[in-house]
Amino acid sequence: NRAPDEFIIVGFERAVYPEQIDIYETYNPGAVIRVSARNGRDNTDWETVWETEAPHVEAQSRIFSLPCRNLSCGEINQIRLDVNCSAVGNWCEIDCIKLIGYISHNDISYKELATNLKQLLLDDSLADVTFQLDNGQTISSHRNILSNRCIYFAELFDEYPSNIQEPIKIKNTSYDAFYQILYFIYTDTLEPVVNYETCLELMRKADEYYLSPMYKEAFNILKKTINKTNVLKLYTQSGLFSTSSNDNQQDDIILTDVVDLCVEFIRKNRQDVYSSDQMQQLTKDMLLRLIQLVQ
Fold first, then answer.
1. Topology agreement, domain 6-103 and domain 105-199
2. Contact 79, 9 (CB under 8 A)
3. Cα separation of 78 and 97, whole Å?
4. Which contacts of 106-111 are long-range, i.e. CB under 8 A and separated by 24 or more positions?
5. Packing angle between helix 105-122 and helix 175-187, nearest 10 degrees?
6. What is the pTM of this model?
7. I need a labelling partner for 260 at 20 to 30 A (CA). Which of 43, 54, 188, 223 fits?
8. Which among 233, 205, 227, 236 has a CA at the least distance from the CA of 218?
C-alpha cells in the first residue's frame, strides 16, 4: 500500500513567468491531487496552481495541462506535485513535467497585445474603413493601425482619405488572402491553419504589400502542410507554368522556394507520387519538367 501523501519537486534551470504546466501522466493518470509552484531561487512560499479533493483514475494516458498565468509569485522555477495513488491501489507513472512561460514581462505583454489586436480585427464596431474584394465580400478595418504598420496602406489612404465613405476596392486578391494580410499586419503572424492556395497567394503578395516577413510565414506553413496529396498541385501552381488569366498575371510569378520544396519532397516519396492519379493530370510539359528537376 502506498502512502496517500507522496510528492515530487522538480526544478528548472531558468525561472520564467509561467503560462502553462503540462504533466505527462502515462500510467494510472488522475493521481495528482495538487500542483504548486514557487521561485526556489528566492525561496518563496509555495502557491497552489490547481488542486482537487480526491484522486481518480483515467483509462488512457494523458497530458494534463494547467494554465497558470495569474500566479502572484511572478517567476517560478520549481513545481511540486502532490500525488495520491489510493484510487488505483497501485502506482502511477509521470514521465515529464513541462513548464511553459516567458523569461520577461515584455514577452507576455507582446503576446497580450497581439491577442488584443486580433480581437480588434474581428470586432468591426470601431472600424473606420471598409474594403471590397472582387467577389463582393467586404472586410472592415482601422486606418490608423494599417497606415502605421504597412506602407502599402499608408499610400493607399492618401488616395482614399477618411471622408470617402465608399468601400475601397481591392483587385486580384481573394478574400481569404486579404484577411490573412490584415491578420499579419495586426499580429505579425498568420493564422496557424491556412490552405496551400492562400499560402501561395500570400507569398506572391508579400512584395506588393511591403510585407517580406509574411512571405516567410506563409512558406513555413507550406513546409508543414505539404503531403502526397497536394505536392503536385503545389508544383503546377508554383509559377513554372502559365495558369493565370490576363487580369491576374501575378499567379505566374515563379516561387522558386516552392519549386525546390516540391522537388525535395518528390525525391523522398517518388514511388507514391508517381503512382498517384494526379500524375495523369499533368500536361506533357509539366511531366517532362518534373522528371528533369527530380533527377
1. no
2. yes
3. 11
4. 107/17, 108/17, 108/19
5. 150
6. 0.63
7. 188
8. 205
Residue boundaries of the structural domains of the chain = 6-103, 105-199, 226-295
State the Rg of the chain over Cα: 26
CB atoms within 10 A of CB 207: 13
Question: If we measure between CA atoms, which residue out of 153, 156, 154 comes closest to residue 181?
Answer: 153
Highest CATH level, class, for 105-199: alpha beta
Return the residue matching grid coordinates 503512382.
Answer: 275
Topology adopted by domain 6-103: Jelly Rolls (2.60.120)
pLDDT tens by residue, the chain, 295 residues: 567 789 999 999 999 989 899 999 999 999 999 999 999 888 889 999 999 999 999 888 999 999 987 788 788 999 999 999 988 878 899 999 999 988 866 555 566 666 777 788 888 888 899 999 999 999 999 999 999 999 999 999 999 998 888 999 999 999 999 999 999 999 889 998 899 999 999 999 999 999 999 999 999 999 999 999 999 999 999 988 876 554 555 667 899 999 999 999 999 999 999 998 989 999 999 999 999 999 8
Distant-in-sequence, close-in-space partners of 138: CB < 8 Å, separation ≥ 6: 130, 131, 132, 167
